[in-house]
Structure formats: C-alpha cells, structure tokens
Amino acid sequence: MQLDFHYYATYCAAALAGYAHEESLEIAYSAQFVDCCTRTLLSKIGGPPSAATTQLSLEMMEADTDPVGLQDITRIWASFHFLPGNLHAEKKGCSKRYLNKYRLICDTNGELLTDTVELARGKGTAAAGVAMHVLADTWAHRYFAGTPSLVINNTSFYFYELVPDGSGFTEREIKFNHNPGSPDDPEKGIYTNSIYQGDESAIMNLGHGRCGHFPDYSFARYRYMPAWAEYREVIKDNPRDYMHAFCQMIYALKCLRDPGGHFETGRYATEEVEPWAQTIGRILQIRQTDASAQWKELGEKITGQTIPDFDIEKYQKEYMDAPDKKHYTTFLGEFILAALAQKSMVTNRIFRSGSKLAGYSVDYGKRGFRGMKDFKRLAKQAEEKKGE
C-alpha cells in the first residue's frame, strides 16, 4: 500500500473507530511513517539504526547479501510489510530451506496479526499506527514474502490484469519494464518492476518487486501462477481486499480503545463503514496510482476537520531537541519503541519456528535496546561457529 491508504485511509478508519481528530492524525502519521523510517533518517535524527522499518533503494543496493545481510533485510520486511501468515505451514516434498521461505509468505488473519495488534495495546497512538500499517499490508502484500526469494516472489509472463468493462472484466497481459524513471500507466497496462535475477536470494527478488507497485494499487485485479503454488492460478482482487483491510483496521482500533478488548482475526467493522461504503467502493476502483485526494476528501467529510498533508519532518525537531533519556517520551520516540518491539516480536516468532532467516532472536523485553543492536553481532558469531 501507499500514502493514500496508509495515511488518509487510516485517518478515516481511526475517526470511524471513535478517535478524536488529533489522535486520528497521529495514528495515520505513524502508519505512513513506517514507509519512511530508514537507517538514513534515523542517522539524521540520532535514533537507533535497529529501529529501521524500511530501506531506501540506495540502502538496498548497498546491502550485504551474505546470510547476515539477508537476515537484516528479512527482519525489516517480514516484520512491517509482509507479515507471515502461517509460520507453521507444512508443504510436502520440499527441503527445510525452502519450507522456511514458504512459511514467510504474507497472508491475512494469521496468528502474528493478533500478536501485532495486541502488542500495541496501551502504548499510544504511535504504536497503534505501526500496527495499522502492518495489518493493512497483509491485504495488499498477501502471497509475497518479505525475504529475497526467486521461487516465492518471481512472476512470469503469465500475469494478467482483470480490467472492468461494464458487464464484467477484460483480461489484459501486463507489460512490465525496468526503467525506474518511467511512471506506471494503468490505462495502457504498463508497470515498472525489478530486473530478473536468477539468484534465489538476489535483492531484486524481495517482496512484490518482480511486479513493481502494481499490487499496491487499490484498483488492481490480477491473476498469475507463482511457483510456490505449483503454478496453479492465484487470483487477487484488491478492491475487495482493501475494503476488508479498511473494515479490519476500524475493528482493530476499536479493540485498542477498549481496555477490556481483545483483537480476533476474521472480524470487520462493517456497520461503521456502511454509511460510507459506496463512496469507499468508488475510491478503491478508480484507475489511478494515487487516491490521496479522494481519501482526504472523505476523511474531512467524516470529521469536519482539515487533514494536513503528510510532512516527514513534522516530529523530527522535537525528537532531536529532547534532553538525554527523554527522547522516548516524544512522538517519534514512541514510534521507535513500537518499531523495536514489533521487529523483536516477529523475529522471535520466526526464530522459534525453527528458521534462522531473520537471525537469532534476543528477547526485547529482557534485553531492551542492547538486545536489538546485538542481532547482527549474534548472527555473525553463529556464522563463525558454523565455519569452525
């Protein structure tokens, strides 16, 4: 998903869940900031690099692709953008190495989603926003994995968009190109994707890079035949899925507001959405690469308040000017704490499943920041012991 859903649609969801205007803005800001919090930004503000929730293209290009580097990549992308749907999934006739990657395939309504939402309970709007980003991305990114893998994430020439034609849908083969300066063109069915790399663990094979931003667009409907599904056809319907994501965000946020609440998977706040359902349905199906204007207009109708544009620098000065040991009382400080907790929780679950793809887990609750910063050191030690 992109800014239109993570910021503006999340604001709408928070408002419909009963949060005040300013609270809704904070939740929405945090949800979008997950796509902005890189090590480069953290270095600028003096934050802990282990709190990174995404990576710049340049950071990815410079990333190591040895086991330790791949573990670092997996910790970020599996924790915040491609939450594993079932870490205990079984698949006959495959190696343990492949099974571990198969278990990282993102899907909706998994056990880790409950853990993610409940982890934010009682921790404020920044933590709620982090959880909403993760929840929303399970719908947009389902069937792709947050670890570099050709066999899981590759797309072949068999990739067709289902374009509404009034009475049904017209199938159109999508044309992919590799020019990052070329904008996506929904009308012509031309989208930018990553370059094919035959190496199973090449960076280009991370997430849905092999089909570019197309899965992030709410209007997208498509069918393809991934290798992980034994080349059986998989159909994705984003307008339907994004509506589910929106309703589930409202339900999750209502649960977080309720001191006695507990998030359950498979539940959606359809009653709260009903008065706005037709408008939302239209927004989701507009063939455009950015629906921010429509979501902003809807949010302002819901609350009667003005929604400011997202400003990446909004909270940075507050964080940098905070005295020693007070950084984590600021909004970005609370975001960093939530990010560290989420990354530690997901890494720990992956580690406990028997996989080392996200590294060796350190208990955040017991070790705090030191534990998070020790991930790389511990992983290096483990690799060195293997070679002895």
Describe this structure in words.
With 388 residues, this protein is an alpha+beta fold. The protein folds into two domains: 3-148 and 249-282 and 291-387, no CATH class; 152-237, no CATH class. The protein has 17 helices and six strands. β1 (159-164) and β2 (169-173) form a beta hairpin. α15 (331-352) crosses α16. The longest helix is centred in the C-terminal third of the chain and has 22 residues, at 331-352. The relative contact order is 0.17. Residues 369-388 have low confidence and may be disordered.
How would you describe this structure in keywords?
6% strand; single chain; alpha+beta; 388 residues
From N to C, what is the helix and strand string? Answer: HHHHHHHHHEEEEEEHHHHHHHH
Major sheet size, sense and barrel closure: 4 strands, antiparallel
Instruction: Report, as a whole number of angstroms, the end-to-end distance.
Output: 44 Å
Whole-angstrom Rg: 20 Å
The computed structural class is alpha+beta
> Average pLDDT, to the nearest integer?
90
Major β-sheet strand ordering: 2-1-5-6
Write the layout of secondary structure elements.
Blueprint: H1 3-16, H2 21-33, H3 39-45, H4 57-62, H5 67-80, H6 96-102, H7 111-119, H8 124-140, H9 150-153, E1 159-164, E2 169-173, E3 175-177, E4 190-192, E5 221-224, E6 234-237, H10 238-257, H11 270-273, H12 277-285, H13 292-303, H14 316-321, H15 331-352, H16 364-373, H17 375-387
Parallel strand pairs: 3-4
Antiparallel strand pairs: 1-2, 1-5, 5-6
